UniProtKB/TrEMBL annotation:
Name of this protein: DUF3800 domain-containing protein
InterPro entries reported in the protein's UniProt record: DUF3800 (IPR024524)
Length: 241
């Protein structure tokens, strides 16, 4: 992902979301993910997603969420997955955290929020690259994240030796119900989380998860090759020494 240099002034929007990210949710797996899309294609993709919603009897501005999946809408979610894989300008990356119960923040002089944004750094460092310009949108986690995301922007730019801050132009906290591509991210990370938690509570969710595995040609619970650009997964586990 790092090797190719983008054409000057090309702007990429990156839409990020997370699943099971709360520190005391008693869930041992966390997934954060992002879909990237060139700014010039964003309106087209959002329109296509709204058209799919309408086709399947939904209000075009209703929110698509993993938690809303039902048997009578399986074809809707499969069509959304097909849309993503039918175009070459949409890419997805996820970080799957396994073993939240083993986190030891005191050992690394950090708190949970510090660690949480480190995971975002691991997610985004393989998406942003020198020569491109990025606008990153994070689904709203809480009301305390503004300073943290500003620091994350600075760290990402410095990691690229871009001290002028021209690569990552902004990181903004947004509401997912307002952005279709963020809802598509929610669908993907929901399936990845469901599979890694080995859940089997919904026939519809199992079918959608298996469909994503089939179309993406990935297992969802192992890291893909780092060079995999269309659908990339990185599995992270805390040290236990």
């Amino acid at each position: 992902m790092k090797g190719e240099i983008l054409l000057p002034m090309e702007i990429i929007n990156v839409y990020c979301d997370e699943s099971c990210h709360l520190p005391k949710d008693h869930i041992d797996t966390m997934v954060i993910g992002a879909i990237s899309c060139p700014l010039q294609q964003v309106k087209l993709v959002n329109k296509e997603i709204r058209n799919i919603k309408t086709k399947h009897g939904l209000n075009p501005f209703s929110e698509i969420k993993w938690t809303k999946i039902s048997r009578n809408k399986i074809s809707l979610y499969k069509e959304l997955i097909d849309l993503f894989f039918s175009v070459d300008y949409l890419n997805f990356r996820a970080v799957v955290v396994k073993g939240k119960k083993y986190l030891d923040h005191s050992k690394y002089n950090q708190d949970y929020d510090d660690w949480y944004y480190k995971m975002y750094f691991y997610l985004l460092r393989e998406i942003v690259r020198l020569g491109g310009h990025y606008a990153i949108y994070l689904d709203k986690k809480d009301t305390q994240g503004v300073k943290k995301v500003s620091l994350l922007r600075d760290i990402l730019n410095r990691s690229l030796l871009d001290f002028a801050g021209e690569t990552v132009r902004k990181i903004q906290i947004v509401e997912s119900h307002e952005i279709e591509l963020l809802q598509l991210t929610d669908l993907f990370i929901g399936a990845i989380s469901y599979f890694n938690r080995e859940l089997n509570t919904s026939i519809a969710k199992v079918e959608i998860t298996n469909y994503l595995i089939s179309v993406s040609k990935t297992s969802l619970n192992y890291s893909t090759p780092r060079k995999a650009e269309k659908f990339n997964i990185f599995v992270w586990t805390p040290r236990r020494d």
